Amino acid sequence: MSFAASVLTLYPEMFPGALGLSLAGRALEAGTWSLETVQIRDFACDRHRTVDDTPAGGGAGMVMRADVLAKAIDHASPPGDPRPRLLMSPRGKPLTQARVRELAAGPGAVIVCGRFEGVDQRVIEARRLEEVSVGDFILSGGEPAALVLLDAVVRLLPGVMGNAVSGEEESFENGLLEHPHYTRPQEFEGREIPDVLISGNHKKIAAWRRAEAQKLTQERRPDLLGAAPQPLVK
């Protein structure tokens, strides 16, 4: 069974976007995964197709209506649909590689792209939306975040990457950032490939890569070191 993604959005023309190219695009054409877009405005209750209203209690901006969004969710994810319902939101739990792997191992996802100041809390609770964040910054809407999430998931689906092992040594897979990479030429502007990488000693190469990964993580993301599952190189 392929991974089935349903994206609820006010801008369906933003999809598949970059997901229609390269690995994800070839996998989409091959049926490894599928993408459905649902126009939230189609479920509006008035002739103006209104999907938002002023925030209760006052304040700037507009809020997505619970009733309209609930209808769209119920259309995309009827009773019995096993797929998780995700809401792309800056206040959500940070998206991690572990969560990406969980999603890739599942049947798919229903992804709600928020807009305006946010979404009525009642529909979040009533439809059990899992709020997910792709970083500590604000976007114009949830669509770019949904593209990021789907790209991360699709590349892990069976057969998408040419070499499945390549996904096992990347940043975050082992609790550390990825080690530096080198390739030809042997010398570039006075800089040479580290001798250990051309030594042929796979044990020493593995140790070097682990040490470099630890050093990079210590410098750039020390918060990750506590999550590293393997003993740190000293």
From TrEMBL:
Pfam families: tRNA_m1G_MT (PF01746)
GO MF term list: tRNA (guanine(37)-N1)-methyltransferase activity
One Gene Ontology cellular component: cytosol
Top-level enzyme category: transferase
Chain segments annotated as transmembrane: none
Primary location group: cytoplasm
InterPro entries: Alpha/beta_knot_MTases (IPR029028), tRNA_m1G_MeTrfase_C_sf (IPR023148), tRNA_m1G_MeTrfase_TrmD (IPR002649), tRNA_m1G_MTases_N (IPR029026), tRNA_MeTrfase_TRMD/TRM10 (IPR016009)
Subcellular location: Cytoplasm
A Gene Ontology biological process term: tRNA N1-guanine methylation
EC number: 2.1.1.228
Catalysed reaction, written as an equation: guanosine(37) in tRNA + S-adenosyl-L-methionine = N(1)-methylguanosine(37) in tRNA + S-adenosyl-L-homocysteine + H(+)
Binding site for S-adenosyl-L-methionine: G114, V134, G135, D136, F137, I138, L139
Domain (tRNA methyltransferase TRMD/TRM10-type): residue spans on this chain: 6-225
Function, as annotated: Specifically methylates guanosine-37 in various tRNAs.
Quaternary context: Homodimer.
Recorded family membership: Belongs to the RNA methyltransferase TrmD family.
PANTHER family attached to this UniProt entry: TRNA (GUANINE-N(1)-)-METHYLTRANSFERASE (PTHR46417:SF1)
UniProt protein name: tRNA (guanine-N(1)-)-methyltransferase
Gene: trmD
